[in-house]
Each structure stands twice: as structure tokens, then as C-alpha cells.
Amino acid sequence: MRIRTVLGDIAPGDLGVCDAHDHLFLRTPLLPGEELDDPAAAAAQLRAFAGLGGRAVAQWTPYGMGRRIDDLADVSRATGVHVIAATGLHQAAHYDAGLLERLRPDALFVDELTRGRAGMIKVATAFHGLDAHARRVMTAAATASNATGAPIGVHLEQGTSALDVLDLLCGALGVPPDRVILGHLNRSPDPWVHRRAAESGAYLAFDGPSRTHHATDGHLFASLAALAEAGHTDRLLIGGDTTTASARTELGVPHTLRALRPRVERQLGREAATAIFTTNPARAFAAPWP
């Protein structure tokens, strides 16, 4: 098992303390003027993160959204922080319709995982459901994951549709649950859904607190504590999900270690913090790459 980074494969034990969901580069027509496209700023984020003990960042920006794979490699090399890049596709609204019509997602994803430098696949739901685009992309992601073992990171719109995703990916399409990382669960703090998702064997990523989704921030640690008490500490991940220039100014990648990790240690204990920030990411992002 190896983890594929933008600078090559590493052993899972070498990943270290990891922000399991963030963005160093991102561009979308839905967020004009908020682009993350400055390599110097990205490197500064990683240096600050490393200064707090951070060793790795999973960068969930998918194909066609300004992920700047060469710049990811440059900032990783310059800072010594491992970077896991994503292939995949976000919601259709982020792309030109003509591009989506021309793409063959299954071939694209496999190519970027095996001949490119991607180490995971990013997909996305609609709000409270899976539209035709989501089903097409998830079907392609399942094909690519089943061929390579690559993990699939799922943007759950406002934290919804987690169980629908598991029914499709793991039920109908045969993806092992431990290859699925459900993102943004903090945005819909439903304990019943969280427990069901954890019981499936999928990983649960809590990507907050965040500037945009502050209404659910107060539920974050209650959700983590409930899952830990139910015996699911080994399913938990935490990331910052910095998607805008203004969010980077206010919080940014270092926030996960500056604010969240100390509180996890205080409330859940040091062993849980090690699991959430080190042990679990090393398992979640490892794959038997062909």
C-alpha cells in the first residue's frame, strides 16, 4: 500500500499529520474574485502548517478547476509538505457544458491516477440527492477506484445525501466502503446518518469550522464526540476546506492544527487526535497502486 503524492509515492507511515481536505489552488466561475491562484500564498500556507507540525495536505481540487498540478509539486518540494492531488469532477455548475459533453470521465480518471500525479478522486452530490451528473461522475469514479484502489472523496452538498452516496458507490457499483471519504458532514449534524455512515466502513471527513458554514460549527465537536463514544474514532478525518481567498486570509490551512487539533486533544484525548490527524489519513489515502 502506498500514498500517491504529487512528488511520487510514499509509504503510509511517512504521511504524518494530515489536513484531510483542503485547497491550495482553486478557480470556479461560481466564486469570481475569490480565486486561489497564487503559488507564493500557497507556499506560505504550507510553511505555516508545517510550523505547527503538519506534514501532509489532501488537496481536493479536481480536474478543470485550476488545481495547477505543476505548482502543487513546486510548493510541496519547497516546503517539505506532502500534497495529495485529486482527479475527478465537481458539480456541473462549475464547468462549461461543452467540456462535460466531450469528456470521458472514466478514462480521464484512470489516466490521471496511473500516468498523472493524482492520488484520489473527487466527486460531488446535489443538495439532498444525486442528479444525473453526479451519477455519471460517480459511476466513472467507481470504475477508476475499482481499477486502482484510489480513494473517492465526496463533496456532500451541505452535508446531505451521505447514505445515497453509499448506496450507489458501495451498493450498486461495488466500491469497498473504506475507499470512500464522505466530506462536509459537519454541515448536516445528523447523528443517526453519521452513525450509519461510520458503521458502513466509510471515512467521515469533518471540514470545519469554516467562515461560510458557521451555523453548524458549534455542532462539530459534539458530532466527533458522539462518534468516538460509539466506537468510530477510526473512521474520522478533519480538514479545513479553504475554498476562497478571503477564507484563506481569515483561517486557512494552518487553522486545522492551530485551533482544531488542540481541542480534539482536550476533548477526545491525545490518542484520538493521533488517530484523526495521522493514523486514519494514512489508511484512507493509501492504495495498492498498479
TrEMBL record:
Keywords: Hydrolase, Metal-binding
This protein's record includes keyword Flavoprotein: no
Bound cofactor: record note: Binds 2 divalent metal cations per subunit.
SUPFAM superfamilies for the chain: Metallo-dependent hydrolases
N6-carboxylysine PTM sites in chain numbering: K122
InterPro entries named among the record's database cross-references: Metal_Hydrolase, Phosphotriesterase
Cofactors (names): a divalent metal cation
Keyword Hydrolase listed: yes
Pfam families tied to this protein: PTE
Any one Gene Ontology molecular-function term assigned to this protein's record: hydrolase activity
Residues engaged in binding Zn(2+) 2: K122, H155, H184
Residues where Zn(2+) 1 binds: H21, H23, K122, D241
Family assignment from sequence similarity: Belongs to the metallo-dependent hydrolases superfamily. Phosphotriesterase family.
Name the UniProt record assigns to this protein: Phosphotriesterase-related protein
UniProt lineage: Bacteria, Bacillati, Actinomycetota, Actinomycetes, Streptosporangiales
